[in-house]
């Protein structure tokens, strides 16, 4: 993986962390159960993506 690609993956991980934080903050202030459920599913999607990106970095660091 080139330095440019590594930087892109690191930026993507930070982006996912930011999105997760924003969604979690929104859920704290929501009362509508359907919206809470939807936002929780979005949080899970972003957590999954973050984990995939972290795994990619781990694989590359072990090479």
Low-confidence stretches: none
> Mean pLDDT, nearest integer?
94
Instruction: Tell me the span between the first and last alpha carbons.
Output: 10 Å
Which geometry do the CA atoms define? elongated
How would you describe the overall organization of this protein?
The chain has 63 residues and is mostly helical. The protein has helices at residues 3-28, 33-61. Helix 1 packs antiparallel against helix 2. The longest helix is centred in the last third of the chain and has 29 residues, at 33-61. The radius of gyration is 15 Å and the shape is elongated.
Write the layout of secondary structure elements.
Blueprint: H1 3-28, H2 33-61
Helix pairs in contact: 1-2
Structure characteristics:
63 residues, mainly alpha, 2 helices, 87% helix, 0% strand, elongated
Summarize the structure.
By secondary structure, this protein is mostly helical.
């Amino acid at each position: 993986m080139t330095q440019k690609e590594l930087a892109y993956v690191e930026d993507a991980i930070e982006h996912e962390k930011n999105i997760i934080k924003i969604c979690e903050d929104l859920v704290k202030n929501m009362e509508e159960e359907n919206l809470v459920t939807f936002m929780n599913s979005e949080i899970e999607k972003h957590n999954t993506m973050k984990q995939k990106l972290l795994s990619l970095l781990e694989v590359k660091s072990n090479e």
